[in-house]
Design goal:
three-stranded mixed beta sheet; binds protoporphyrin IX containing FE; 9% strand; 11 strands; five-stranded mixed beta sheet; alpha/beta
């Protein structure tokens, strides 16, 4: 996940972090080993004889290199999942260098694995991120923590975040940021050569997402949507990009090279910038809280105040968690919004249905609120379908650390690493007929048979699922409904956009330009 996330971030600067799809294992893999334990269910008849991982087809280094660099999958890693499934079926092994992982590439196997997930699920070795925290004595966050410590941390973090009613409390904060996005869209249209075009929309949405998640986490605005981004904020944005860009060389190169080659130093400098910025805002909030406490005033505030007032967390743990929430909450949301707008711009029927729904629920000049979203099933379906077609986490992993497990009739000893091919699974036509078509209605609860829920689980599953899901959804719903209410989005027939259309990369191309035509029929409503 860290690498997936890193991958999507790095793609922003046009560079891929990972050389191949199951290279999540680069960060996550632990070697498989061990012997069957008596706790594993045994086959009832000799016909059901359990096979082992040795019975699985195996992808070796040579084949992988051929696919990546000769067949050109290097830049279409998500499509490689589909191709590999055609070649090997729904379950196979990858053994490339030190990477060993069992790949699950069908909805049935995915469901089987996740239903057998452990009490404290693990995605694997996170040392790429934990090294810096260890160096500076900063606590681990929800991404990097493991075991019972992770569980206790999530228990604190989940509160005020994960329940749909929790996210409603951030509605006003998010809507303030949406207002600034809308102002910016008006400004960019006005200054564009056609008078209605927004260039490099992906970058604008990145700024929106960073401002949105920062305003929730820091309880303050950081100026990403201002015409001139404040120097400190720009440095923070650059630090995020720098940390992600140098993740791959740092992960690949041996530790002894760290003092000789420049990569590790730059990687660490990225982290320094991220934490310097985060710590400054957190300390400002701490001072404000302390002042109120000293003068016997009530301590008010939202998420950060809640974390800081929580006696179960030390300040260093708050730093670690806030930084990880921030890093996880930017590209994920902005890319999904980008793809949603991209898809809507190409389908006037879907866009019109969405517009009708928003206008019905929020008539006149009213601004959609967090509560209004409850009467917009089509809006939710649009986001769900976007995430099915363009899942921002196309690949994820689990390590069964504690117990042996049987999946798909195969026995796997504990510590086996599994790679889950979410992209290919959400493209499977058995679960989603006409998978390449944008059909939000698949997700409506209007009596139709709904797809297998494991067919598309963009936020993951179970207790280790995305902690920011409700916030991400709120941001996307409020921004998209307001935009659709004000503008009709149309594609721009520029050459650059063809790149996104070809889906050569899963991350929205940052050069995508769209036209925002002001709705003329607003008065009629
Ligand atoms: C469209 C937006 C988003 C998508 C699709 C998404 C998706 C995911 C996925 C697939 C996972 C892994 C779940 C698993 O392993 O089962 C995850 C984990 C996580 N996400 Fe998100 N995410 C999004 C937005 C956010 C936001 C806005 C935040 C922060 C507020 C966030 C914070 C996290 C954290 C901290 C984790 C690690 C949780 C843990 O390991 O306990 N995400 N996300």
């Amino acid at each position: 996940m860290v690498v997936c996330l890193a991958q999507s971030m790095v793609q922003r600067s046009g560079r891929w972090l990972l050389p191949f799809p199951t290279a999540l294992s680069l960060v996550y893999t632990r070697a498989a080993g061990g012997t069957p334990s008596p706790s594993v269910a045994q086959p009832s008849t000799s016909q059901d004889k359990i096979r082992t991982e040795d019975d699985l087809p195996r992808i070796k280094t040579r084949e992988m290199l051929y696919r990546l660099y000769v067949q050109g999958y290097y830049k279409r890693l998500h499509e490689l999942q589909v191709y590999e499934k055609q070649l090997y079926g729904p379950m196979y092994k990858i053994g490339v260098g030190s990477i060993n992982s069992v790949v699950l590439n069908s909805v049935e196997l995915l469901e089987e694995l996740l239903r057998k997930d452990e009490r404290f699920p693990s995605r694997g070795d996170m040392s790429l991120w934990t090294d810096y925290r260890d160096l500076r004595g900063i606590g681990y966050g929800p991404f990097t923590e493991e075991g019972v410590k992770w569980y206790n941390l999530r228990t604190v973090l989940n509160k005020r975040m994960l329940h749909p009613k929790d996210s409603v409390q951030y509605g006003d904060v998010v809507n303030e940021v949406v207002s600034d996005l809308i102002k910016r869209i008006y400004h960019l249209r006005r200054t564009s050569p056609t008078g209605d075009r927004v260039n490099n929309l992906s970058n604008e949405l990145y700024r929106f997402s960073l401002e949105g998640i920062s305003s929730i986490l820091f309880e303050t605005r950081i100026g990403c949507l201002e015409e001139e981004i404040p120097v400190e904020t720009q440095h923070f944005i650059d630090s995020i990009a720098q940390m992600f860009s140098y993740s791959l060389p740092v992960a690949m190169l041996p530790k002894w090279s760290r003092n000789i080659l420049p990569f590790y130093g730059r990687y660490i400098a990225g982290w320094e910038g991220i934490f310097k910025f985060s710590v400054k805002f957190i300390e400002m909030k701490m001072e404000a809280i302390q002042k109120r406490v000293d003068t016997n005033q009530e301590v008010e505030g939202e998420y950060l105040t809640y974390l800081l007032s929580n006696t179960k967390m030390t300040n260093k743990e708050v730093y670690g968690s806030v930084a990880e929430l921030l890093l996880a909450g930017v590209d994920t949301t902005s890319n999904t919004m980008m793809w949603a707008m991209y898809l809507l711009s190409r389908d006037s029927n879907v866009q019109n249905t969405l517009y009708q729904e928003v206008s019905r629920c929020v008539p006149g000049d009213n601004i959609p609120s967090a509560q209004d979203v409850n009467c917009m099933p089509y809006l939710k379906a649009v986001i769900k379908e976007t995430l099915r077609m363009y899942p921002v986490v196309p690949l994820n992993s689990r390590i069964m650390a504690e117990k042996d497990v049987i999946i798909g009739g195969h026995f796997f000893p504990k510590k086996t690493s599994f790679t889950m091919c979410h992209y290919a699974i959400s493209q499977d036509e058995k679960t989603f007929p006409e998978p390449s078509k944008f059909k939000p209605e698949r997700w409506l609860r209007d009596g139709r048979v709904r797809p297998n829920p494991f067919g598309s689980i963009p936020f993951g599953f179970g207790v280790r699922g995305c902690v920011g899901r409700r916030i991400a959804e709120l941001e996307m719903y409020l921004a998209l409904s307001r935009i659709i209410k004000l503008f009709e989005i149309r594609p721009d027939p520029s050459i650059r956009e063809v790149k996104a259309l070809n889906r050569s990369v899963l991350v929205a191309d940052r050069q995508v330009n769209l036209h925002f035509l002001e709705r003329t029929d607003k008065a009629a409503l």
